[in-house]
Amino acid sequence: MGITRxxxxxxxxxxxxxxxxTALGIAAVDVDRSWLPGLGWLAALAYLVTSxxxxxxxxxxxxxxxxxxxxxxxxxxxxxxxxxxxxxxxSFVEPxxxxxxxxxxxxxxxxDAVDGWVARRCDAATEVxxxxxxxxxxxxLLALSVxxxxxxxxxxxxxxxxRYAFVAAGWLLPWLRGQLPPRYWxxxxxxxxxxxxxxxxxxxxxxxxxxxxxxxxxxxxxxFGRDVIWLAVRRNVSGSELPAAR
Length: 246
Fold this sequence. Notes:
Number of domains: 1
Largest sheet: none
CATH class: Mainly Alpha
Shape: globular
Order of helices and strands: HHHHHHHH
Distance between the termini: 34 Å
CATH topology: Four Helix Bundle (Hemerythrin (Met), subunit A)
């Protein structure tokens, strides 16, 4: 079976991300740096392959007939997250200028506002697209929190791990997998996390970075806490086993 039109867009963007990771690694070696060879390149490739396979699985399960411009924007952002992931992993092996990482994070954060706007503008919002957007957000925050935690401390990892802890808790407590009502505040809180972590990644004004990241974490705890309370109150309501949508 050949690649369909729906499958071509995410595969091609993931491939572009892999090519960019390889080019970045080659260019860095040429200037006596080691950005994205070895472990970094493998991490970027692993993210791109895994995220694309999961996306294609979601599209196929819902028999999607078109990929859509909004999903295209999210897929482009996902390709950037692949590069960011590789740089973060490589930073544990070889020192890396924070400006290189921030140069990729900023457009990834800006595009997060674009894909939702495109989906609303084109009346093309879908469950798959919303889930894809959410998971790209979550992994970007995880990668950034890992990078920043080396400077500010392990407590920063709570930002990147909270979404995954929530999902894991749902395996033990089925009522946590209930359907949550749409709430714009979640997007605001996610944006604050990205901005705070990006500022901290620059290495500027450490004290201010600690304050900003701590504030962002407090907002995240409030947001997840409100959702947990909402689900707990309604856990006996019929239909609470539907997948959660953050």
